[in-house]
Amino acid sequence: MRAANRFSLLAFLVSFVLLCLPLIGQAAMQPVDEGWQYRWGDSPLMPDGTPQWIVQDEPGQWHDIGFPSNPPDRAGREHAWFRVTLPEGEWFSPMLYIYSVDIIVQAWFQGELLYQYGTFDEQGRGRFEGWPWRAGKARNWRI
Fold first, then answer.
1. Per residue, what are the HEC states of 38-77?
2. What is the pTM of this model?
3. What is the DSSP letter of 123?
4. Is the dihedral of CA 13, 16, 22, 27 positive or negative?
5. Cα(143)–Cα(132) distance, integer angstroms
6. What are the pLDDT digits (tens) for 75-118?
7. Least CB-packed of 79, 115, 116, 125 within 10 Å?
8. CA-CA distance, 108 to 49, in Å (whole number)?
9. Which of 48, 99, 116, 105 has the alpha carbon at shortest distance from 80?
């Protein structure tokens, strides 16, 4: 094969791959807009400091919510937890985009703290720290 033909074939293959990469990434995206639940209050901590609610299911304490924001019957409560079961799949780089959390937040997945924005004190309180940008592949959020 002549060098010019090889170069043309290589240029075509590289161009094809570069054009297809965005489509591959978009095809794997999946909205997580169903199955959300909330729970008022703050989780007791286990001896190692891990919140009990990320490992104990207690289904009667969790309530369905269409969107993880402003759960009903706040009645002056300061703490809310949200959770969702993430879709099954072979994800290249799993990420859950949360477009706004106006306070401090922790994101937990399979018993591990993956992300924290701001600082919680011993009573689970903290001051406003601005807006966090992303929370990776977390499943539970302490807000």
1. EEECCCCECCCCCEHHHCCCCHHHCEECCCCCCCCCCCCC
2. 0.69
3. T
4. negative
5. 12
6. 988 889 999 988 887 777 777 777 667 678 888 888 889 888 88
7. 125
8. 13
9. 105
